[in-house]
């Protein structure tokens, strides 16, 4: 059984929905925002049903994707796949070991899975190295006025 994920609003509240009776409750979750680890909460509904949820604290929604692309840093190309995408950034997995430096800038090129098969080319900053093959990156500019912006509107 998978544990459902609930999202935190800008007001630092989350809405818990009971699987048994269908009632929903909005609660203040501000005390969990600064935790570094994943936050798993248990709650008990007024009907007596107990359930667990995972609290999603990201600023923007992230979508799992499989988009072919290339990560470029220091004139070296690392072919691979964008595995998740948000308005703020991507997670990129390379096909080979990559000598990618964290906190340095790079470029990413990838092809969207929209009907036009639009090619996106963006400057990024590498924020996290999960392994020698997987990297968390943020876009240098989060204003997307091209096909990527349309993708967020219509395919998310």
- Quote the average pLDDT: 90
CATH architecture of the largest domain: Beta Barrel
Strand order of the largest sheet: 6-7-8-11-10-9
Strand content: over 45%
What CATH calls the topology of the largest domain is Thrombin, subunit H
Radius of gyration: 19 Å
> Which of globular, elongated, flat, extended, rod-shaped describes the shape?
elongated
Q: Helix fraction?
A: under 10%
Distance between the termini: 25 Å
Instruction: List low-pLDDT spans.
Output: none
- The assigned structural class equals mainly beta
Any overview of this molecule?
The chain has 156 residues and is mostly beta strands. It has two domains: 5-56, no CATH class; 63-154, Thrombin, subunit H (Beta Barrel). It contains one helix and eleven strands. It is elongated. InterPro entries: PilZ_domain (IPR009875). GO terms for molecular function: cyclic-di-GMP binding.
Outline:
The chain is mostly beta strands and about 160 residues long. About 5% of the residues lie in helices and about 50% in strands.
Helix-strand layout with pairing:
Elements: E1 5-7, E2 13-17, E3 24-28, E4 39-44, E5 50-56, E6 63-73, E7 76-85, E8 89-94, E9 105-111, E10 119-129, E11 134-139, H1 147-154
Which short descriptors sum up this protein?
156 residues; mainly beta; Thrombin, subunit H; 6-stranded antiparallel beta barrel; 3-stranded mixed β-sheet; elongated; cyclic-di-GMP binding
